[in-house]
Amino acid sequence: MSIDSNIEKKPSDQQSSPVSKKQKAPENEIFSNRRIAKNTLVLYARMIFMTLLGLFTSRVVLQVLGVTDYGVMSAVGGVISMMGLLTKSLSKSISRHLTFELGRGDMQKLRDVFSTSVNVQMGIALIVLLIGATLGIWFLNHKMNIPPERLDAANWVMWSSIIGFMIALINVPYSAAIVSHERMSVYAYMTILEAILGLLVVSLLYFSPFDKLKTNAVLGICCSLLIRGIYMAYCRRHFEECKYRFVFNVPMLKELTSFAGWNFFGEGAWIFNTQGIDLLINIYFGVTLNAARGIAGQVNALSTKFVTNFMTALGPQITKTYAAGNLAQMHQLVCRGAKFSFFLTILFAIPFGFEAERLLTLWLGIVPDYAVVFVRLTFLSAISTVLGNTLVTAQFATGKIRKYQIVMTICGFWVFPLTWIAFKLGGSPTWSYIIFIIVYFGLIFVRIYLVKDMIKMPWTMYVKEVLLRALYVFIPAFIPPLMIYLLMPSSIVRFILLCVVSLIASCMSIYWLGLQAQEKVVIMGVVKKYLHREKQ
Q1: Which of 6, 184, 293, 435 has the fewest C-beta atoms lying within 10 Å of its C-beta?
Q2: Is the model's pLDDT at 297 over the cut of 70?
Q3: Higher per-residue confidence, 129 vs 15
Q4: From residue 274, how far is each of 281, 297, 347, 513 by CA, in Å?
Q5: Alpha helix (H) ranges present in 453-514?
Q6: Count of alpha carbons within 13 Å of 402, Cβ hemisphere only?
Q7: Handedness of CA 490, 492, 493, 496 (dihedral sign)
Q8: DSSP of 427-442
Q9: What is the mean pLDDT of the chain?
């Protein structure tokens, strides 16, 4: 029997009588909402700390390495990141299966999933070493546009990236277990430690008598080994299923690899559309533009951490509600997750987009060419992707991803060849972002069509509760800061005023136009409770 048919039947096995469902659903929904809120707040505290460290670390790394070496680091990292689709595909497969079995309460199968996933990851790590040591090194030395005097250092970065990537692969089952168990405080502490170690590495670069690019690469491996060791030790101590034992479970291996295989197929388009574009920019425009794109990517990562943290907390709940057969609650989580992801994105995208030049100057001191326009276009790219994130999570929860990945890959892969054609015809590097934005906005509707039947959710529900509400919120949130940007000359006064007005306009628009009545009641209840506590 295929994985699709197996997974399709599981939710029904867990269903209780209609009466018991009606009695338990409100209680379960309140509990899951509280857990999502608690985990999200923990991740937000981590995000604020990491954002401050990340801003400082990125500035120092750019100043210590210089634009050329920073571009080399970004370009070489892009080669290894293309192999990252292996990690991402298998990570989603492992996380999905662990979360699903937690939702069903099957401890024996949970142990089999974990041990089998460790075996798979170790096998993939050896394959990555083979590919990186042959094809990766050849591509670096013969095809990439690297200054000749920095080619030796680039090879150090490549080898360090390969080893670090292998370490990350082996750690995937452990980090997936933490997320599946919703131990977000542990996840937060570990990523904070990782950020602190990154800051320590940057500090050591100042005093290193050796080549700074090589030093940064080697110290990065040392940090990875320490972090992954702590992950493994924690999981082995706290999660019963994480005590590894050799398991050769053929049906489980087929489930994991079938899911990961189709996800691998789909992730290939994403990698080509991001890291593949980095390589095209390197070939056609050189490492300076790679530095600008690397900066834009970091700004996007920092500004969308709210969404990333929110989805990290929400994702397991979507999968668990599907596993329990509670589709009505799942539909609510999918729509609210996409809607709030959009709201969190525009809170940063609107003011940061308008004042990108001043922000980059204050942050970096050195602003590479095209960095400002890349940052602005990156924010639009982020909006085009967050509106469909929960649909992806919902599709993965079903386990039936073959059709979804085939269609999405065929439709989404056009970004890479169209960008290549644009560059060959002499187009600006900004065309890579423009093409990406157009294609991925179109993919939102493709996702809705593919997912609606799988989770029995009316497409009108998603359009009304997510897309239309997003449009209603965006227009009044965008106009006031636009007027300030157009009418006032660039200055620190405009910068402060625009950010304040943008925040107020966005919050008012979100509250009055973006929230349902019951969501407003919940938010006002939280505010009143907080104010009452302050008075006491």
Answers
A1: 6
A2: yes
A3: 129
A4: 11, 10, 24, 33
A5: 459-462, 469-487, 492-509
A6: 7
A7: positive
A8: --TTHHHHHHHHHHHH
A9: 79
Separation of CA 426 from chain center: 32
CA atoms within 13 A on the CB side of 82: 19
Residue 169: strand, helix, or coil: helix
Phi and psi, residue 461, nearest 5°: -65, -45
pLDDT in tens, 214-254: 888 888 888 888 988 888 888 888 888 777 777 777 777 77
Q: Find all residues with CB under 8 Å of 178, minimum gap 6, and list them.
A: 186, 187, 190, 231, 234, 235
**Region of residue 309 (phi > 0: left; psi between -120 and 50: alpha; otherwise: beta):** alpha
Q: Distance between CA atoms of 306 and 300, rounded to whole angstroms? A: 11
Tokens 């050849």 identify what position? 138
Count the neighbouring beta carbons within 10 Å of the beta carbon of residue 124: 20
Tokens of 165: 């990537």
CA distance 470 to 309: 20
Q: pLDDT of 393-412, one tens digit each?
A: 898 888 787 888 889 888 98
Residue 93 contacts residue 260 (beta carbons within 8 Å): yes
User: What distance lies between CA 98 and its chain's CA centroid?
Assistant: 19
CA distances from 432 to 71, 378, 413, 436 (A): 18, 10, 13, 6
CB of 338 closer than 8 Å to CB of 386: yes
Q: What is the mean pLDDT of residues 337-354?
A: 91
DSSP secondary structure, 251-264, as one string: HHHHHHHHHHHHHH
Cα angle, residue 426 at apex, residues 422 and 427 outer, rounded to 5°: 50
Q: What is the DSSP letter of 426?
A: T
DSSP, residue by residue, 27-62: HHHHHHHHHHHHHHHHHHHHHHHHHHHHHHHHHHHH
H-assigned helices in 286-304:
287-303
* Residue 387 one-letter amino acid: L
C-alpha dihedral over 225, 228, 233, 237, to 10 degrees? 180
Please give the C-alpha separations between residue 9 and each of 14, 19, 122, 126, in angstroms, as whole numbers.
9, 21, 31, 36
Q: pTM of the prediction?
A: 0.66
pLDDT at 39 over 70: no
CB 375 within 8 A of CB 295: yes
Q: Please tell me the distance from the alpha carbon of residue 519 to that of residue 177, in angstroms, as a whole number.
A: 31
Residue 15 has what DSSP assignment? Answer: -
